[in-house]
Amino acid sequence: MIINELVLNNYGIYYGENRINFSIDDKSKNIILIGGENGAGKTTMLESIKLAIYGCFFYGIKNPNAKYFENILFKFNNKAKDENQNSSYIELNFNWSENNKIDNYIVKRQWIFKEGAKVTEILKIIKNNKVLEPKEMEDSENYFRKVFPQKLFDFFFFDGEDIRRLLSDEFLDKDFKDAVYTLFDIDIFKSLDEDLNNYLRLRSKQLNLTSDEEEYYNRKLSLESFKEKLETSEKLKTEKELEKAKIKSNLNNLDKVFQNAGGEFYNKINEIESQIKTHENEKASINEELKSIIGNYMPFLINKKSIPIILKQIKNESHSKEFDVFSNRFEDGTIAKLLKSTLGEISESSLNSFRNALLKEFENKGDSLHFLSYDDAEKIQVIANRVLNNVEEEILGKFSKIKEINEELPKLKATLVSVKDNKDIEEILKEISNENMKIGSFDKEIETLFSLIKTEKELYEKEYKLLSNLKDKVIKSKKDSNKFNVINKVQSVLEKYILKINEDKLDKVRVEFLEIFRSLHRKEDYISNILIDKSSMKIDLYHKTGLMDKRLLSSGEKQVYILSLLFALLKVSNKEVPVVFDTLLGRLDSSHRTNIIQKYLPNVSKQVIILATETEMTPENYKLLKKYVAREYTINFNINENRIDICDSFFNNKN
């Protein structure tokens, strides 16, 4: 399938007629590059392609009912509605290739809106310039859905932002299995097997079955019932896993919002609490200093005028002590001995003159009142001098600082209460709590389903074994011409053929995957092997040391893994499928980006549609990609005219 043109008229935010040419004229250029900011209409464009092909099946609805038309009415352009226009349509022009033959299709779905009446859909399909009749159109729709089911289209619609869900084993294995069955035409043989079962069911009474055949038939119906129950349980489990994954994705977004808002929130709280603590510590320190100052200086402050007298008295008392010391040393001859040992012989008159002069210098100038030690006297002198040098100003300054802190603390505490009472943060935390509760509920349901599936598998395997034994017994008792025998032979051949196709094709997929992955990954020997179970389609990756835990892959490596798998499938199937990439380069580092642009995108498909924002597609990336681009567009939302404008260049060619 190759898309040639898409026309949108009054659909979604596309007001009036909008034509987008997807055709590729130069085989060396296979990329359609579509730029636009988030919300500009890129996703609507891709959804419209699927809606044109699958109709109501796009919404999971088998027949065009009220729910389908409700969705269509919701997509009717608001501006057109305000202008009382009454219709919208999607027209898709594409080529379909099969058995070396190329057919051109134009599918147009138009909707008529009349006030008070239900929405009417008009379908028109043109095949190779011939307008098809209603029965032919119905057959064409069924054909599209069968050979190119929507699940296959979705599998080749790569959303880089949804990489976590894609890599989940439950989803990837299921999607991969669906893609394998469709691309390798295994669905056709599965349908044939079902038709044969239906034939047995409808003709059972006419076939004159023996008791063994009857038992076989009943057991086969029972086995089908077990299989249906098992598939229903597995489908329900997958749906629960998908819902859980969506909640987890929402939870991740909430975590990011909380980290942004909540981070600032807690930083602000920490900042205020730090300021409060600093102020309180400073206040406590000043109080301790004040206690010390007041305890030491208050008596002197009260008697500040007496301080000079006190200091003089202390000085006099100090002289008196010195007088007594020198007087005693003269009396006991200590000073005389020192002088004679130092200066030699001194006359008695000279010694007396020195004694009188020295004692006069330290003459007792009054009675002692305080009887202080030298250390106490020195401390009192220090305190007294500080008091005389206006220590009260220092005390008043500290009281002033305490007053300032006392005024600031209530303000900070009030601000803290206000910050903590953040309703937005409370709502985020409440929503996070609710989402976690939902996940817990889903975990319980999934665990229950897991146990149920295990039991149903055991029953299925037991019934299958009994059926196989009975089948052998019936076949031995019948000739080859027996219809029962013939049908079972055909079914056995089909089963073996499907397993053989799986084995051969999946082995080729494995070889291609390894080659592609190694060419894209910066470490060539990062993955040594890949094994794909031919029944379950479970994929296991191996490195040199053994089985690899895919959860340990980086975001870029996960993306390269998925991309390599897509490419390998397309290469082995040799089918023409348009590949769509939305936000492809956002999670990749520079080396992976370069490899993807130069080695992957030019080769993965004949038509590659890339949806990108301006920030994602850097000038360097655009320059590398440009030579492979067949057409490029930028979708802009014109606020003034409330419509989409489509420009034939990618963000002004990234100049």
**Content-based structural category:** alpha/beta
How would you describe the shape?
Answer: elongated
Q: Detail the poorly predicted runs.
A: none
Q: Give the DSSP E fraction (strand runs of 2 or more residues).
A: 5-15%
Summed over residues and divided by their number, the pLDDT gives a mean of 78
What proportion of the residues is helical, as a percent range? 55-70%
Terminal Cα separation, in Å? 34 Å
Arrangement of strands in the largest sheet? 2-1-4-5-6-7
User: Rg to the nearest angstrom?
Assistant: 46 Å
For the largest beta-sheet, the strand count, sense and barrel status come to: 6 strands, antiparallel
Total strand count, please? Answer: 15
How many separate helices? 19
Secondary structure layout:
Blueprint (H helix, E strand, L loop, with lengths): L1 E10 L2 E8 L9 E5 L6 H13 L11 H9 L3 H5 L4 E12 L2 E12 L7 E8 L2 E2 L2 H14 L2 H6 L1 E3 L3 H5 L1 H15 L2 H18 L7 H92 L4 H25 L2 H10 L4 H14 L12 H15 L2 H30 L2 H54 L6 H38 L8 E4 L6 E5 L2 E2 L7 H19 L5 E4 L7 H11 L7 E5 L6 H7 L3 E10 L4 E5 L8
Helix pairs in contact: 8-16, 9-14, 9-15, 10-12, 10-13, 16-17
Structure described in brief:
With 655 residues, the chain is α/β, with parallel strands linked by helices. The protein contains 19 helices and 15 strands. It has helices spanning 42-54, 66-74, 78-82, 134-147, 150-155, 163-167, 169-183, 186-203, 211-302, 307-331, 334-343, 348-361, 374-388, 391-420, 423-476, 483-520, 555-573, 590-600, 619-625; strands spanning 2-11, 14-21, 31-35, 87-98, 101-112, 120-127, 130-131, 157-159, 529-532, 539-543, 546-547, 579-582, 608-612, 629-638, 643-647.
